[in-house]
Structure formats: structure tokens, C-alpha cells
Amino acid sequence: MLPSISLNISNFHEYSNSILKQNGGTIIFEGPWLTNMKIVFTSNAMNVQHITSTKFENYGKGDDFKEIFEVLGDGIFRSDSHKWKYNRTLLHSVFKQVSFQTFIHKTFEAKVDSCLLVFLDHACKKGLQVDLQDVLQRLTFDNICSIVLGFDPICLSIDLPEIASEKAFNQLEDILLTRHIKPRFLWKLQKWLQIGDEKKFVENQKIIDHMVDTQIKCIRSRQSEIKSKINMQDKLQQFDLLTTIMNTEVEKKEQPNSIDDKFLRDTAINLLAAGRDTISSSLAWFFWLMATHPFVEAKILEEIKENLPSKESNWKELGKEGLSKLVYLHGALCETLRLYPPIPFEHKCAMKFDVLPSGHKIKSNTMIVYSLYSMGRVEEIWGEDCLEFKPERWISNKGGIIHVPSYKFIAFNAGPRSCLGKDISFTEMKMVVVAILLNYHIQLVEEHPIVPSLSVILHMKHGLKIMVKKRIV
Ligand code: HEM
Predict the structure, then answer these.
(1) Where does 2-470 sit in CATH, by number?
(2) Every domain of the chain and the residues it spans
(3) What angle (nearest 5°) sits at the alpha carbon of residue 103, between those of residues 284 and 321?
(4) pLDDT tens digits, one per residue of 124-153
């Protein structure tokens, strides 16, 4: 199998999708002799339900994942059992706080208004070619830093500055992918000798750690100032995630260790990773789909206008409630996430022997990878037209959204480890779509190739080159 995978590596998602299809949705990949490598690769929804929910306790992240993603520390993405449970309970209690949700809404609204629209206005006036994927990555990086750390690095401004922490994040992501492809002994040796990619890894990690540590210090000093002033009003005005975590009480019995600086650092890095590229990748694919499906774009625009309080209304006047009424837009976003899930693969590792619903026997310590990319293209789930972009498939006869169980619509994962940021993501994506579509028309630069990259996030390999024109309403 290795030679054929190497030959198709540039087209890996499509290649693996066709191999899975030919083999009934599950294949076993065995590495060369002596490598002891065995990976079960699946897009079978019953297997995924079994792994993520029915036998949840038997499938953890595993040692390989933990080794490759050591930068995530003991945060939610890299932890299992009681450490994961504690992280999950704590973050869940923060995410459901209304004050925190309002803070997220207001922060993002201000960012879209003062940075994204200002940038697009500038690009429009100057007739610039823009890489929309890069612009969206900058927007979501600024936003997630503001939300988690209470600090905006301002990557998105008209001169598109190079910000060390944002660049460091991009490079870390690329090196994490190479750790999946290189033989383990090789990257381990490079790490030990501190050469090549592994040297760069440490340098980039230091940049990010420095940014996070500085902010933790600021938050701690602000906290002690507040305590000394005993000023509850000030305290209530601090909503960034780390501050909120410090103020959130979780049952003591569930708390394995105190909320020290290491815990805050790990939580911050995990959330920066969770909230940055997932939203920007979804939006980049969405705007490409809009440009290639003008009929869908027109319907979305019509729906937005119908829900605005008046013809002259500004995009912000739609508010959270107005956004929730945009059913067709919601369907179009789900359809984008089905075909282009930002996280294209998930790893799991079996703790004990098990048999999958497809009949495959799983020994303990076997790695299982399920392809979120392929699951969105399974005919048995989505029908013969599964490769077509059709927001209508999400709309019921009564005009509501059709619920598809998460083990089939897998973009946000399924079971107890499903995404905690799903609702926030839909709200933020809708805000960007409404703000852009009401004000601008996006034109693709001709001949610019659009292909998915092979990365831990489903980016566009060559970005999304566009021109913006003011929309005449
Ligand atoms: C379109 C946007 C997003 C998509 C498609 C998405 C998708 C996912 C997926 C597939 C997972 C499972 C990862 C794994 O277990 O390895 C996950 C987990 C998670 N996501 Fe998201 N995500 C998105 C946005 C966000 C945002 C904005 C946040 C928060 C700021 C967030 C927070 C989390 C957290 C905390 C988990 C860990 C859940 C756990 O392990 O219990 N996500 N997400």
C-alpha cells in the first residue's frame, strides 16, 4: 500500500475516499515488515457510532496521538479519562454562561466591523487581489486570542502585518503533519538532536508559550488588583475565557489539581487551536462555494434581507435572534461542513480487544482513523447526489432544519467528545457571511487552483484568491 499512497499523496483525500468506497467503507492498512504498523481506516457510520459513543470507554486518544501532539499538554484535546472529564466539565460550564456568550458575540461583532469590513473596503477601493483564506485566518486568530486571553494581536489590518505568534501557529501545524508522515524514529531523532523541522518546532512553541504566559501574568495581576479593591463591578466586566475559568467553581471532587499556570497555559493553547482554523477553513470553503453557486448565494441574500428590520438596516441589526432565523444559510453552512469538514480525520486507539459493527476485529492498541471527509461523501447516508452542493437537503417540508445524527453528520465529531464550540461557530460564521454578502460581491480570480491541502486542517492548498466589488443593493 505504501507506494500507492506515496503516488497519491497530493490528492490524498480523494484517493482515500475512493479506496474506502471500493472496500465497503473500511480498510486495514499494514505498514512494511517490522514496522508493526496497523491502522484501521473507516468511513462506516455504524463503526463511528460504536467508537465515539457505544464503546466510548474503549477508545482513547492513544500514545501515538499524545506523542505527536505533545504541544497541547494536558488540555482537553490530548487528555483521556478523569483529566478529560474535568476539562470538559469546566469548559462546558463556562461556554453555557450567558454573560460569556454575550461577550463572544460582542467581541466578534466589533472585530468584523472594525477590521474585516475595513480591510475589504480598502481592497475594494484599491482593486487588490486578496487571499480570502489568509484574511479569514487572521480574523479568527485575533478573535480567539481576544476571547481566550483577552488580548488582540491585530493580525488583520490593511497592511496585513506578519505577527510572530500567528506565523508560529501556522508552522507548528505544518510540522505536526510531517510527524504523521515521517517514520517515528526519524522525527524523534531530529527532536533529540534539535535539527530540521523539530528545531523549528521548539522555536515556534517558545513564541506561542511566551504570548500565552505574558497574558496569564496580566490576568493574574488584574485579578489580584480586583481582589484588593473588592470591586465586584470590575470583576463582572472581565469575561475572557481564562478569567472566567478562574472565577468558575467546579465541584471539588472532580478537580484533580488546582488551576495553576500550567493548567491555564494548556487550556489556552487547546482553545486557540480549536477556535482558530476550524472557523476560517469552513468560511473559506463556503465563500468558494458561493462564488461557484450564484443561485444559492442569491437565495441566502434574499433570506438575509427578509429578516433585516428594515431595508436600510445595518448587518448588526439582525442580532443573535435574527441570525438564528436564517434557516437556508444554516443549511448552506451544514452542506459546506459536510463536504469540507475542517478536521478531515480523527484518530482513536483501542484499549481492549473489540469487534466493530463492520465485523473487523480490533486488537488492543490498534489505531483507528475515521475519515470525516469521506463520511460526507457516503452515498448510503447522503444519496446518489452526495457530491453535489445542495443546501436544500437540510431543509424540511415545514421549512425547518432537518436533524441528522452526529455520527452521520460528523464535522463536529460525535458522542461525549463532540465539539463544545458548535453553537458559537454557527453564530460567528453567520455573522461573517451576513456582513460580507450584504456589502460585497466576491469574484474568484480566474485560473486560480482550488484544492484541499494535506494538513491537520482542511485548508485550501493555494489559498482563495479573490477580488471584492461593492454590492449595489
Ligand atoms: C466550524 C467550526 C468547528 C468545527 C468543525 C469543530 C470540530 C470539532 C471536532 C471534529 C472535534 C473533535 C476533536 C477531537 O476529539 O479530536 C472538536 C472538539 C472540540 N471543539 Fe470544535 N470545532 C469547531 C469550532 C470550535 C470552536 C470555535 C471552539 C471553541 C472556541 C471549539 C471547541 C472545541 C472543544 C473544546 C473540543 C474538545 C471536545 C472534547 O474533547 O471533549 N470548536 N471540534
Answers:
(1) 1.10.630.10
(2) 2-470
(3) 70
(4) 999 999 999 999 999 999 999 999 999 899
